[in-house]
């Protein structure tokens, strides 16, 4: 797919007059979180609210401070958690922010595209039921055949066994 960057505006979620422009954030759907350099967040008085652990692509675990900010890309705006990126960390626009911004990736054009509405998973049942009718299904899975969460095992369909005739 390749990678591309976008510019954005970060606002303090309490005092929206405090803003900073980030010229380049790499769009990364592999990251849930948005990573903004600490110096930019400090400039607009975004405070760390908690400390979280993150796993890098190479398997390494790191700890970073996390705060809250308003993220604006083009005409879209959302409130999300932002990671205080340290020196050497990449500046990233993560998948949670993209969902909140109602933006999707055009991989071929290397750009963000506005969505009309929030995507929602819907089960379409084949057969006589019209696909525009919502139908709730109870779905469960058992991990690796046995075990898994107790509730999954309880909801799993019971298998019918046939006895061999002797």
How is this structure best summarized?
This protein has helices spanning about 40-45, 95-100, 150-155, and strands at about 5-10, 20-25, 35, 50-55, 60-75, 75-85, 90-95, 105, 110-115. It is mainly β and about 170 residues long.
Description:
- The chain is mainly beta and 166 residues long.
- It has a domain at 5-114: Cathepsin D, subunit A, domain 1 (Beta Barrel), CATH 2.40.70.10.
- 11% of the residues lie in helices and 36% in strands.
- The chain contains three helices and nine strands.
- Strands 1, 2, 3, 4, 5, 6 and 7 form a seven-stranded mixed sheet that branches.
- It is extended, with a radius of gyration of 22 Å.
How far is it from the N-terminal to the C-terminal residue, by CA?
A: 59 Å
Task: Count the DSSP helices.
Answer: 3
Strand content: 35-45%
- In total, the number of strands is 9
* Shape-level CATH architecture of the domain at 5-114: Beta Barrel
Rounded mean pLDDT is 80
Helix content: 10-25%
Q: What value does the Rg take, in angstroms? A: 22 Å
* Sheet having the most strands: 7 strands, mixed
| CATH fold assignment of the domain at 5-114 | Cathepsin D, subunit A, domain 1
Task: Please trace the helix and strand order, writing H or E for each element.
Answer: EEEHEEEEHEEH
> What is the class of the domain at 5-114 in the CATH system?
Mainly Beta
**Assigned CATH superfamily of the domain at 5-114:** Acid Proteases
- Global morphology: extended
Query: Any low-confidence stretches, pLDDT <50, length ≥5?
Result: 135-156
Assembly state (oligomeric): single chain
Structural class: mainly beta
